[in-house]
Amino acid sequence: MRDYLVFLWRALRVSFVGDWRYYAWMLLLTCVCLLGLNAYAKQLVHGLIVTGMSDHVSWGLYIANFTFLVGMAAAAVMLVIPVYVYRKHELHGLVIFGELFAVAAIVMCMLFVGVDLGRPDRFMHIFFRFNFPISMLSWDVIALNGYLLLNLHICGYLIYCAYRKRQPSKLFYIPFVFIAIVWAISIHTVTAFLYVGLGGRPFWNTAIIAPRFLASAFAAGPAFIILTVQVIRKVTGYRIVEGALAMLRNVVTIALVVNMFLLGCELFTEYYTDAAHLVSTDYLFRGLHGFNALVPWIWSAIAMNLVALVILLLPKSDRRIWPTNLACFLLIVGIWIEKGMGLIIPAFIPSPLGEIVEYTPTANEILVCFGIWAFGMLIYTIMVRTAVPVLTGKLTIDSERPAQASIASGEAS
User: How many angstroms separate the first and last alpha carbons of the chain?
Assistant: First the structure.
């Protein structure tokens, strides 16, 4: 226990040490966090009236970010499977970075749900009226918290074993790894079922939403890891195993192909069969009675995804890293628009009474979102700043003992 407490203390000290780029980045994130906290304080005082939501559109930017981030968290499984199922242990470091991001993503998910509730005391209704197993919300609470604990245990145990310079016991993490693989798929599936199970919103009543969620998650998540790992390599000098980025690129390419195919299937079903919720689809893709706020957004998202797919499929684009980085950036933004605003908002427009009330996020709402994203990136940066020295052998239990020995000898003399 003493060694573990010393490890936590040393990890905390390391997180405050870095070069000017690290301090500038942390200062920027802290300032954005404070701006977001101030915006949330205004929302807490005045209520959700300061957002663009209404009794017609009750889910907006907060739930859109929640939906996107659940997928980003679930995508960590795409790094776990090659390492622990196909035994590519050279990618072990990437798994830790992926699981650390999953922890940060789940924290952001919970924060977005919290700010969307309006009043924090409403959390009590979730726990005092859990309604398990009838309520899908109770399943989602279990899925998110369980996945958070699993990732905290796995990456925390592996990093601590690396700090102790000892081989981790398979009994303490391998069973949890395979549970996490199933759990990662379940958190996004349960989130999809939250929407599919709402019979009053026909736009969501399709069985293809869950597969679309998984395909988009397995594209955007590894794409984000590709970008972040390169930043980690450039800033810290951490060596990435040759072929790791190529493997992730292949995962992103296949997942993006499946995602675009499923989107095409959905559009064919809607327009060819003239389905019940075609009116919401029309609002999203073509506009409805002069209301077309989301039309440029969704077509921009589709264009971004198509450009990213073309880049990834080009045979010579993998020889240089910048085309892959461009494709990853485009598909992350495109999937955020398609899976967030493009999925959540149209289900409320028009309302069950046929009224059309458009939704536009307010500046206060956007600041809260930026604040939560900044807080999540702050958590991820601190965890990565702690993990890299441990994984590279610069921060180990032995590196503290010489200092302690010199202090002890000085006191003895």
Answer: 30
Residues, the chain: 413
Report yes or no on 150 lying in a domain: yes
Burial class (CB in 10 A: 0-12, 13-18, 19+), 245: buried
Tens of pLDDT, residues 142-168? 888 888 898 888 888 888 888 888 888
Angle at 340 between CA 194 and CA 337, to 5 degrees: 155
Q: What are phi and psi of 288, to 5 degrees?
A: -140, 115
Report how many domains make up the chain.
1
The CA-CA-CA angle for residues 90, 226, 193, to 5°, reads: 100
Instruction: Supply 213's token pair.
Output: 């969620």
Q: What is the rounded distance in angstroms from the CA atom of residue 94 to the CA atom of residue 226?
A: 10
Angle, helices 278-285/244-273, rounded to nearest 10 degrees: 120
Q: pLDDT (tens digit, 9 = 90+) per residue, 218-277?
A: 888 889 988 888 888 888 777 776 677 888 888 889 999 999 999 998 888 888 887 766
Residue 408 domain-assigned (yes or no): no
Q: Would you call 291 helix, strand, or coil by DSSP? A: strand
Query: In a 3-state reduction of DSSP, which class is residue 288?
Result: strand
Q: Report whether 343 contacts 281 (CB < 8 A).
A: no
Instruction: Say how far apart CA 383 and CA 283 lie, in whole Å.
Output: 42
Residue 114: domain span: 2-399
Instruction: Classify residue 176: in a domain, yes or no.
Output: yes
Is residue 142 a part of any domain in this protein? yes
CB-neighbour burial class of residue 304 (10 A; exposed 0-12, middle 13-18, buried 19+): buried
**Structure tokens given for 75:** 């995508």
Note the pTM of the prediction, 2 decimals.
Answer: 0.88
Are the C-beta atoms of residues 337 and 301 closer than 8 Å to each other? yes
